[in-house]
Amino acid sequence: MDQVAVQRFVDEVWMDTIVPELVEYIRIPNKSPLFDPDWEKHGYMEDAVKQVHAWCAGQDIAGMDCEIVRLPGRTPLIFIEIPGEGDDTILLYGHLDKQPEMTGWADGLGPWKPVIKDDRLYGRGGADDGYAAYASLTAIMAVRREKLPHARCVVVIEACEESGSYDLPHYIAHLKERIGTPSLVVCLDSGAGNYDQLWLTVSLRGMAAGTLRADVLNEGVHSGYAAGLVPSSFRVLRQLISRLEDENSGRVLPEYLHAEIPQQRIEQTRRMAEVLGDGVCQAYPFCAGVQPQADTNVERLLNRSWRPALSVTGAEGMPPLASAGNVLRPYTALKLSMRLPPTINGEEASRRMKATLEADPPQNAKVEFRPEHPASGWNAPDIAPWLEASLDAASRAVYGHGVMYMGEGGTIPFMAMLGEFYPQAQFMIAGVLGPSSNAHGPNEFLHIPFARKLTTCVARVIADHGRRDQA
Hints:
Layout: H1 3-26, H2 39-42, H3 44-57, E1 65-69, E2 77-82, E3 89-95, E4 115-117, E5 120-122, H4 126-145, E6 152-158, H5 168-174, H6 176-179, E7 184-187, E8 199-204, E9 206-215, E10 221-222, H7 223-226, H8 233-241, H9 263-276, H10 279-282, H11 297-305, E11 309-316, E12 327-328, E13 331-340, H12 346-358, E14 366-375, E15 378-379, H13 385-398, E16 404-408, H14 413-421, E17 426-429, E18 445-447, H15 448-466
């Protein structure tokens, strides 16, 4: 493959059409169904799907079939088939639904306000991961321009990932015959340890999320009249959460939420810590003086990738500070997000968490935990020699440094599904969510030069996959 020619082509497509497309895509508040239950009525998801589909369908790729597939009552899905040589299949995956707005955006920035500054495209969803459909087709086009053989390619772009991909299994079943049996899966919805080399994700955490609610009264009562006699719903929740987490260390307590860490993953994490050094913590916008958990970078990275961790991501039943009168509130509800080790079953963890939280409630308060679409994590199979060599060669040619392997703290439910459906497949899980890119939070951005180079790496892997039997 002519590395210079391919990079030139990729850069031209990115700057001429992909970046302008992403600018318009960011303007669309197509929040995932979990955050916009009326998504169908609002029409933003439809706008995003039609925009991405129109660009994909308009590319000059001989034999391509590009369509929007719809199942009743479910978010739509973009399905693309591109013919190749032989019976083999490559499956490329991405999503176009987005997380909600979040507060704290810097002046001049906003979730639906695309801004390009210092080679970064700011706005919600560009990096997570609206770019995936565009980058996938561009990589395939680059291989074809070089007249290199490649396997048949199937591109799947879903619209429910940020809600746990609960619609996706229905589409996979519906499209099973058309998808075939891929020997390589390329997913562009992951992260990177820095912007200096290719990062391959080798594990993903699962998640057991839900709403924990405690009721103590049928209506609020003057705190001077009730406090000390009526139990505080907030205190009830504090006690219940202490069943899950040690409030001093942050360690998750139930052993059923822990898993043994494979030695290979520990060694890869040590190598990652050596390469990143203090960058492991510098990637986070800590307030002055705040210290990260754990004493070493290796332990911090393992905490982030292979150990359970609890976050409280939302609250209900509490008025804003300006309206907080002296009232003992009737209830408190908290949104809990429990990240799970890659090898823990999400459904089982969610079921056992519910039992832990609801058993024997303090002072017999009315307690309920409502789970929300639990997801299992994923641990990559052993990497085939051809793929390992291809990834390293691509990274060195494009970035000037060899490939690195990392465990990712987030969840991509589709990967666990694919691991079960296609146990013999190889996986290239990568992405552009590097330091400070802040997916799901304020000031999310896409690092444009890094994304262009990642696209070229994908092209290299697709080409090497086509000739792996001759290697």
